[in-house]
Structures are given as structure tokens and as C-alpha cells.
Design goal:
Length: about 190
């Protein structure tokens, strides 16, 4: 993961700058004017995103939508994120982006993005008001669930591993078992 604070002209990046980024397989995101560039994801990462997206979509109420990355969440002119999986209200989406906080943002850890997902993105989602933030580690087969408390701060409400289950209530009821997100292939592939 690469982070840059300013463009070549010395000013912070804006969402308009993202329009000019190359379509090269990298993910380009902004957090408070800082450009974060991450490489294409590996097999385990993508497998978890696919399986989790399908699981969430099957349980999703009709007035909500589940989408995988890349899909922009752009709450301001200096922040645009692309959660690995997101859930939002149908009425909040435009054709190109989600201009408000999603109800759920999920990040699947990769060696190149783990620190950013656990710190910068977590802080950005918290400031945005994302009610529920999940972090999945596909190598350790863990799911950590953060939810906003009454002070608008994230608190850990669940940490499950392997065959343990998490029965989510936010943004809707769904059962997640980390080991099932990789299935029989979990031992064969490393990122």
C-alpha cells in the first residue's frame, strides 16, 4: 500500500483527482486528502469477498443493497473509500457512488492493507457514521465486528474464529461463520 499526501502541485488530493487515476488494477482511495493505492487482491481475499457478498445478499431485505468493491463511498470532497463489501439503503445510491455512510462496511485484510484497514479506514468509517464495521482476516479465519456506541465511537461487539458463528443484527439478521467463507480451499492458497 502506498500513501501520498499531496499531488505534484503540493495540494491535498480530492475526489476529482481520482477521475484521472489509471485503470491499472490498483485500488485508489482517499482518506482526508491522502491518496492510498493498493495492489490487486489475492485469491483468499477475493474468495472471502465473493462468499460473504453472496451470504449477505441472500439475507438482505428488499430496501437494502449489498455490493462488492469496487464501488465508491464518497461522503466528502476529500474522502472516497471502496469497502470490500458494503450494505446501503437503496434510496441512498446513485449510479456511480454512495454519497452517504453505508450501514455496513467490510474490509478483508491483505498483507498490503491490514494496517490501513485496522486504523485509517476504521477511523474514517467511524467519523462517517458507519453503524457496523467488520474486519475479516482470511488467513486466521477471524471476524471482528465493531459497532458505534452511544458516543459515536466503535466498540468491539464480537470476535469469532474458525467454525464459531456470529449472529448479526445490524444492518439485518444474518449468521456468519468465518471458516465457511473459504470452505475446502482454505488450506491450499496463501496471499
Amino acid at each position: 500500500m502506498t500513501a501520498m499526501a499531496h499531488d505534484q502541485g503540493g495540494r491535498p488530493y480530492t475526489v476529482e483527482d481520482l477521475e484521472g487515476m489509471p485503470d491499472d488494477g490498483h485500488r485508489y482511495e482517499l482518506i482526508d486528502g491522502w491518496l492510498h493505492v493498493s495492489p490487486a487482491r489475492g485469491y483468499r481475499h477475493q474468495r472471502v469477498v465473493l462468499k460473504l457478498g453472496a451470504l449477505l445478499d441472500a439475507a438482505c431485505p428488499d430496501d437494502l443493497t449489498v455490493l462488492p468493491a469496487p464501488f465508491a463511498v464518497r461522503p466528502s470532497g476529500n474522502t472516497e473509500l471502496q469497502p470490500d463489501v458494503l450494505v446501503g439503503r437503496d434510496v441512498d445510491f446513485t449510479d456511480k457512488l454512495l454519497p452517504v455512510a453505508p450501514l455496513l462496511a467490510v474490509e478483508v485484510l491483505s498483507p498490503s492493507t491490514g494496517i490501513v484497514d485496522l486504523t485509517l479506514k476504521k477511523g474514517a468509517y467511524e467519523r462517517m457514521g458507519v453503524v457496523s464495521y467488520w474486519i475479516i482476516d482470511p488467513r486466521e479465519l477471524t471476524l471482528t465486528v465493531f459497532e458505534l456506541d452511544s458516543d459515536g465511537r466503535y466498540a468491539v461487539v464480537a470476535e469469532v474464529k474458525g467454525e464459531d458463528q456470529f449472529d448479526a443484527t445490524l444492518p439485518f439478521s444474518v449468521r456468519v461463520v468465518p471458516a465457511e467463507l473459504l470452505g475446502a480451499v482454505r488450506e491450499r492458497y496463501q496471499e
